[in-house]
Amino acid sequence: MTSHKNLELPKINYQNRLERMKDLAQLKPGDAVYIPALPNIRYFSGFSGSAALMLLTVDSATLVTDQRYEESAQIECQASGVNVLGIPSAGQLAEVARLLRGVKRLIVDPRQISMEDYWQLKGAAPNAELVNERGLPEKLRLTKDAAEVARIREACRIALQAFDDVYNQLEVESTERAIANMLEARIKELGAEDIAFATIVTSGPNSAKPHSRPSEQAVGEGQPVIIDFGAVVDGYHSDITRTIWFGELDRDLKRVYEAAKDAHAAGIASLEPGVSHEAVDAACRAAFVRHGFVDKPLHPSGHNVGLSIHERPFLTPYATEPILEGHVLTVEPGLYVPTKGGCRIEDTVLVRHEGVEVLSQR
């Protein structure tokens, strides 16, 4: 359920999403889409629990969950009009079989189900053709509408406010774990539904490991501190990284920081409708090369973000898909020198026809 404070968020048009899904899947009578991934279920129904599946046909949308969630699901799915069935786990397969009677073509994403589930589906619908369609719901989720952008913007606002509040309390000798704990607590105090992911705080030589877990290491003067954090508002994530330091940053690491800052700026400047994910990644990498850093970066230059913290495609050399108006992506090029340290700067960015909007900057 939504837990943000003092904010009236725009209503989500679930019926429009369901109709767009039917069009995208080219559903006909006798067809159905099996939707097992929780972010996709939330996208179409509003259900925020941890156990459910959905079936979508031309004339119905049904959510099957267990009885723990039945009451809350009925409330959460009122806006979407999705039918809710509370079925004990042991009886859900039989219920799915009932719902699939008469289905001749069942669309599934093979990346979202296990082999066991796949064969159970075949057993439940022995006369249906199982059609593999990768990323079908996610293709809709990439383009965010105004209601989604409002939620991501609020998730960014909360995360930034929490960072500012914690930053003002930091001092040399604060430990990585203490900083992470303070930031996560403050994000929740400010009204976020949750943190977007386990907060990353990594300092000194540890900062050369992009996703090192926070430790009891104390922050030292002149050493970089990478802080990667985010908030969730009504299911939608923000993702932000800042690199800070106390005193005067080590000269070699200052060069690393300047390269990361320029790569970040180059990536954002390259964002526009129609450009490929690959091209944005290339712009970030070219900036590193201009600064004399020619080694391959350790991670993608960013990713789409929304109901999931990581949404495909990522900003990589292999992602040729175009970025479209309404996409929300992170731009997060990082540079890491083994045993020395690293720097990363990341913002959550909305792509619009008239230009990008950096949602995670004041």
Describe the structure.
The chain has 362 residues and is of the alpha+beta class. Helix content is 33%, strand content 20%. The strands form five sheets. Strands 4-3-2-1-5-6 form a six-stranded mixed sheet, sandwiched between helices. Helix 7 packs across helix 8. The radius of gyration is 22 Å and the shape is elongated. The mean pLDDT is 94.
Task: Provide the fold topology.
Blueprint: H1 14-25, E1 31-35, H2 38-45, E2 52-56, E3 61-65, H3 70-76, E4 83-86, H4 92-99, E5 105-108, H5 115-124, E6 129-132, H6 136-141, H7 146-167, H8 176-189, E7 194-195, E8 200-203, E9 225-229, E10 231-233, E11 236-237, E12 240-244, H9 251-270, H10 277-290, E13 302-304, E14 311-314, E15 328-331, E16 334-337, E17 341-344, E18 347-350, E19 357-358
Parallel strand pairs: 1-5, 3-4, 5-6
Antiparallel strand pairs: 1-2, 2-3, 7-10, 8-9, 9-12, 10-11, 13-14, 13-15, 15-18, 16-17, 18-19
Helix pairs in contact: 4-5, 7-8, 9-10
Summarize the structure.
With 362 residues, the chain is α+β, with helices and mostly antiparallel strands.
Label this structure with key terms.
362 residues, five-stranded antiparallel β-sheet, six-stranded mixed β-sheet, alpha+beta
The largest beta-sheet arranges its strands as 4-3-2-1-5-6
Which consecutive residue ranges, at least 5 long each, have pLDDT under 50? none
- Range of strand content: 15-25%
Q: Helical residue percent? A: 25-40%
Return the average pLDDT rounded to an integer: 94
Helix and strand content put the structural class at alpha+beta
Please report the total strand number as a whole number: 19
Q: Order of helices and strands, N to C?
A: HEHEEHEHEHEHHHEEEEEEHHEEEEEEE
The radius of gyration is: 22 Å
Largest sheet: 6 strands, mixed
Quote the distance from N terminus to C terminus. Answer: 27 Å
Shape: elongated
Please work out how many helical segments DSSP would assign: 10
